[in-house]
Specification:
Oligomer: single chain
Strand order of the largest sheet: 1-2-3-5-4
Number of helices: 12
Radius of gyration: 38 Å
């Protein structure tokens, strides 16, 4: 047996002894009940009295374990001492009567087996030691220990295997009971189907929040860094020849960084405060308020952008649903960022239009030259996180995003449903 197995068996034995100790208050209460009914006043005076006390104490323990807070206490002890993986055990108090019933069954099993192992642990070692040293004692000492019966038959040497047998019974009982509890713990203290579903929904909600914040950081900061890098590089190249262009580039860098700091502060506020809106937070950019500035900053970075806008009969992006306007802005931002990073300096054609066909929707189509030779697959050196984020944004609105080669250009197309109408 390995050292780890011995250590695990030792911890399980401690867990069982703890169960025996937890049974003692119930035994004291059982002795009061038995004495009231004319039974023994002390259940520890004899084995029959002890068995009668356990017969009364264990049902009392079962009833008390129906309290919801018993399960967290039992789970904490099992995790620490039984070697059961934490993910197989339930979290928090028992919420349903079925979970309380399983906890009560576990509590009864733990205390019952703990009482047996505790009794063996108290009586077994002294008995085993006495039997093992009995052959070394004289007749008077054997009689004083009430062990003269071994010498009356075949001498005292048969006491040695009897002592070893007592040790084996104690070890076997402790190991077997510990293994039984370890197997029963996931069944009796494990989460119910409803609790598993609730935990899965909570994890999914947390993941959705993390993904949303990751998209916001990627789109806002990633676009700003791409634009600022290109603007600074362009300014450096013409620093001595075109001071006016350098001034425009520096102004664009200042505007880009100022806006990005505001957006970054908003996202960090969400990380600190959850989804609670902060009154001083910068508003999320939208098509109506921020599209023109986004295109201007992209042009200042050296890209040639031809924008074609058709808001439909309303004549303005301001009337779009707010969530559609925000997500559309981020999708356009991601497309322009990709064009800056991978477009090889070629022109970008951007088309935004409200389509009044089978389903009223906002369509975004952007084309630009493909990535330069030698770039990563698809020209996307960032692992496709931005395009994946754009697809997630569209999916949240029931829309879709398609991206890939189209002839000799790269094409991004997004369709965002507008529902019954703009507002």
């Amino acid at each position: 047996m390995s050292r780890a197995s011995v250590a695990r068996a030792g911890r399980r034995w401690v867990h069982l002894v703890l169960g025996g100790a937890l049974l003692m208050p119930y035994l004291l209460l059982a002795s009061v009940v038995l004495a009231t009914l004319g039974g023994p006043r002390d259940v520890l005076t004899s084995l029959p009295a002890l068995l009668a006390g356990c017969a009364v104490a264990l049902p009392l323990a079962t009833v008390s374990a129906l309290l919801p807070l018993v399960r967290p206490l039992a789970v904490a002890a099992v995790r620490a001492l039984c070697g059961v993986p934490g993910e197989r055990l339930a979290e928090g108090p028992a919420g349903s009567w079925a979970a309380r019933g399983r906890t009560a069954l576990w509590w009864t099993l733990h205390l019952g087996l703990g009482a047996v192992v505790s009794g063996l642990s108290l009586a077994g070692p002294p008995l085993a030691v006495t039997l093992l040293v009995l052959p070394l004692l004289d007749r008077e000492q054997q009689v004083g220990l009430d062990m003269a019966g071994f010498a009356d038959k075949a001498g005292a040497w048969p006491a040695v295997p009897a002592g070893l047998l007592v040790v084996a019974v104690l070890v076997g009982a402790a190991v077997g009971a510990g293994a039984l509890l370890a197997r029963a713990a996931p069944v009796l203290l494990g989460p119910s189907t409803a609790e598993r579903l609730a935990a899965a929904e909570e994890r999914a909600a947390d993941l959705a929040v993390r993904n949303r914040l990751a998209r916001e950081l990627h789109d806002a900061v990633g676009h700003a860094l791409s634009a600022v890098t290109l603007q600074a590089a362009a300014a450096r190249r013409v620093l001595d020849r075109d001071p006016e262009f350098v001034r425009e580039a520096l102004a664009a860098i200042e505007d880009t960084t100022r806006r990005t700091v505001g957006e970054l502060d908003t996202v960090l506020g969400l990380l600190r405060d959850g989804d609670a809106a902060r009154p001083d937070a910068a508003p999320a950019p939208t098509l109506g308020a921020d599209l023109a500035g986004l295109i201007a900053r992209t042009r200042a970075a050296g890209a040639v952008v031809a924008a074609h806008e058709d808001p439909g009969p309303a004549g303005s992006w301001e009337v779009l649903p707010a969530i559609v306007s925000r997500e559309a802005y981020r999708i356009v931002q991601e497309g322009l960022s990709n064009a800056l990073r991978h477009g090889a300096g070629g022109p970008v054609d951007l088309h935004l239009a409200v389509r009044e066909e089978d389903t009223r929707a906002l369509e975004i189509v952007m084309t630009n030259p493909p990535a330069a030779p030698g770039a990563s697959e698809g020209g996307r050196t960032t692992g496709g996180r931005g395009l994946r984020g754009a697809a997630e944004r569209a999916a949240l609105l029931g829309g879709s995003v398609e991206a890939g080669p189209a002839g000799d250009r790269w094409r991004l197309r997004a369709v965002l449903p507008l529902g019954g109408g703009a507002r």
